[in-house]
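User: My notes are a mess, but here's the protein and MTE's SMILES. Can you give me a structure?
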Amino acid sequence: MSNDLPEETRTAEKETLTKLSRTSRRGFAIWLAGMATGVLGVRWIANRAGEANIPWPLRRSLEFNEKMSQFVIGTGGLAPEFSPSEASEPRVNGRYGLVDEPIDINAWRLQVSNESGKSFNLTFADIQAMPYHEHITELKCIEGWSQIVRWGGCRLSELLEKTQLARPSQGAELYPYVALATKDGGYYVGLDTPSAMHPQTLLAFKMNDQPLTPGHGAPLRLVIPVKYGIKNIKAVASIKLGTQRPADYWAESGYDWFAGL
Ligand SMILES: Nc1nc2c(c(=O)[nH]1)N[C@H]1C(S)=C(S)[C@@H](COP(=O)(O)O)O[C@H]1N2
Ligand SMILES: [Mo]
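Assistant: No problem, the inputs look usable. Here's the predicted complex:
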């Protein structure tokens, strides 16, 4: 793994995580106090054994968030959209998996594949030939800042439909997971397929009407406004559908794997 960020930056993200889990625990404790009088509360307290190194109150609240987010997504809920005047450029945040050399766009390929062995190498022109979509949404970093940005690109759902990679065979169930990675594997993200197929989930090559800059993930990045910034992988080079929950860079450091809003 190429950790080209100074160690202090990584440490800063970890400290944020610690603060965040403390905050979630506090919030959850208040919520749980209210619930404890109810039947559900009793059942949840009974269920409190530690699991997978996540303190139980935090784990429960994450599972609760996960269910809520999936409910919103399942009913076609959209992340809030804003007006063009509100959009501006976000900071460059996180350089894992980004390369310093300029990208040769003619040699660049996006590898899309699935577990059944089906695979395509798409050119940048293939991506640009897809129906173009834009939205103005908030990029929310788990560190506590957010930025309204105008994004443009193709829908991941339309690309998966066109390539017929979302299912093992026609009429079969969707693969439940999507794994995305940079070319060198220095950054990688796992998604649940419903979030990947959400209409606002874009493979973006434009930011605020300009071509994406290298720091923001040129030539192509994921924009997934129903998730925190950590899932919005820059310089994405491979996308694979499968049945196993994929590895995820920040989930490995203890962040919520689902990371939904
Ligand atoms: N390849 C790659 N993608 C990444 C990251 C990274 O370190 N490497 N950081 C993530 C995080 S934590 C955030 S908040 C957003 C920030 O996007 P921006 O740099 O365009 O503001 O990118 C995400 N995508
Ligand atoms: Mo972030």
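The CA atoms of residues 97 and 186 lie 4 Å apart.
User: Great, I'll file this with my notes.
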